[in-house]
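Thread: iron/sulfur cluster complex, take 2
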Amino acid sequence: MGTYILENEEALKKVLENMLRKGMVEGVMVQTAGESGVFTSIITDPDFISKTAPLAPLFSNNNAVFLQNNGTRNIAVVVKPCEARAINELKKLNQINTDKLVVICADCQGTINPRDGLITEPLTEAKKKELEKDSIPIRKACTVCEHFTPPEVDISIMAIGTTGGYILATDREELLDGLELKAGEIPSGRNAEVEKIRKENLEKKEKMVEELDKKLGSPDTLVEFFKDCIRCDNCRDMCPICYCKQCYFETPLGDLRTDEMLHQAATKGILRIPPDILFYQLTRNIHVAAGCVECGACEEVCPRDIPLLDVWKSITGNVQGLFEYVSGMKRDEPLPLVGFKESELEEVK
Ligand code: SF4
Ligand code: SF4
Ligand code: SF4
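Output below.
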């Protein structure tokens, strides 16, 4: 693996620009700072790369959603670790062709939702303090995130452990052709620093899950938890791991119309609308549990402010923990339910 020094974010932009100018990729999906704020864009003209903010600590959705069923043309994408993990997971589900993507991912020190504030420069401890003073919250998912460093990707950008600037690491050195980058080294203190942050976040996550488990003990408390859901489908549509090509809830059996609702209402004399909220949520839980990347995109887009992430943290920890699997960290690791051998889990026989 080659490791190189990137002095600053501008040097990363040069890497992106070079890939476009040299025709290694036909486009770059990256955050761009425009007059109306920061938004994700696909850039085909290398002159626009100067306007990008690849390391802006913003997250309003998981951009892996927009790469699902990608086509045949090469693009580079600059993503957060939870987005890169979703890409890897979708690859295993044959819903993303990673041969046509150059995935670039940087250490993530937390993000904010653009509706809460806009910053374009990478997050540092000093910047976090400033945000706190201005009452701009770091997203809940980020405060309890255990996987904030790049998983298996084409180009990793490391900030944690460096004393300013970044280390770029890649096995695909051909992507740097034409650039004169100085060789660098992964800082010796990096692992210890990563583990320190991970431990802090894990403690917060465990507290979150403990509090949720106290609340949710029975089907009745689950009904109560989801009582405000209006079945808008935002959580499903913006979840990168909700992968079914045909959702049950869009079939005649799942997407109930008045005749069917009348039929169901007749059983008890009354039917709550929208129907089947718990069934909907549990279906998503069953389908997504082994692959959820804990990005929190579902919670960000819920118009009823249901703390969906808390549920996912609990379910994902239990299910993925059972299979000793962490979704999306590697590209070729079999999915738990595909690689599962009967002899592995005697207790579920
Ligand atoms: S959940 Fe983790 S990887 Fe995703 S944006 Fe937050 S800190 Fe970054
Ligand atoms: S269920 Fe929520 S937290 Fe999990 S991958 Fe989907 S959007 Fe992200
Ligand atoms: S986003 Fe919220 S309100 Fe909409 S379906 Fe999901 S849980 Fe229900």
